[in-house]
Predict the structure.
Amino acid sequence: MNIAANNPELRSWVEVKQGSDFPIQNLPFGIFKTNGLTPRVGVRIGDFVLDLKTLFVLGYLENLAFELSDFDSEYLNPMMKKGKKATRDLRNRISKLLNATHDDLKKNEHHVGQVLIHIDQVEMCMPLQIGDYTDFYSSKEHATNVGVMFRDPANALLPNWLWIPVGYHGRSSSIIISGEAIHRPKGQIKPVDNEDPIYAPSRQLDFELEMGFFTFDGKPIGDSISTEEAEEYIFGMCLFNDWSARDIQKWEYVPLGPFLAKNFASSISSWIVTLDALQPFKTETPKQEPEVLEYLKFTGEKSYDIHLEVAIKPDSSAETIVSRSNFKYMYWNMAQQLAHHTVNGCNVRCGDLMGSGTISGPTEDSYGSMLELAWKGTKPLPMNDGSERKFIMDNDIVTIRGFCEKNGVRIGFGEVSTKVLPAKK
Ligand code: CA
């Protein structure tokens, strides 16, 4: 499909610096507020945020499917409730308004001053009211690494892994936005030399390099979404750090899976990049062997070439990049994840979040967690300041960044950055 807003030739009359994540071809959605403005829907362009509430009031969003309350909202959900076609038309309209060859908005300087706000004056807010959060486990390299470390190197993948996009239901109440700090979690840990567990702050706090996708309203309960239909039900994607306490996880996860090791926090980036904007960056997924069951088969390119990196910044020194990976390494793609999620009749709702699972690449410097990068603590990672990391220390800031690049167009996600404060007393 040809989406007008994706044309690589487009230029905006709003200044977009070289290398920016947010050219006119991106136009991601988020929720922002300022000292004078209540939370509302915004679209990012360069170093500016376009205020959709005010844009609507000034009459620039007429003849679309939206009303004022869709933009005068502290969450994107009302806007997303209007569905794929409506949000695609909206993005195309915004692209036109910001296009250097159109002056409908540009010529009205007093309007421009009202609707374009510099990013320095803006505070980003949690963009969605997330109903349900599901986390997958879809990187073959990650699942293999974990299997090698904790089970049997000869049979690293469990028998179901190549047949099922394995996942579990997570916790949405503790999903936080980039910039919000977390405290080191406490819980039950069973040290190797102890007979009984202890209660203590986690000593093995880890990040998980993931991406998330947000759904539109799905089908009624009882119905399924096919791989063919799946992308019509996906609004967009964000960067996602699914915090994990490995020592708590190790003791608690049998037989029902992770609980307190995972539900204390998961961080998302502020801007939701639409699946439409990512369309030019589609790429093939890894070959699946054995052949998957009928409902998981798909046609065409279903993954996206998204460069990812993770940095750790100690309290008082510069950051070190500890991993470079790519979303395209995922074995199971989003269409398969959504098809599997709903094949039993489970319904998804507008604003549900699906995590990809840790995205590890094939090489040691492309692993998506400290568990793998430092190989269970046996290979500490050197930091630029001379210190070492086996896991995340107090006051470290962990930042994930991601972007696509092709034909001179760079579509970025910005970052998700989280500081780890010491455990609460
Ligand atoms: Ca995870």
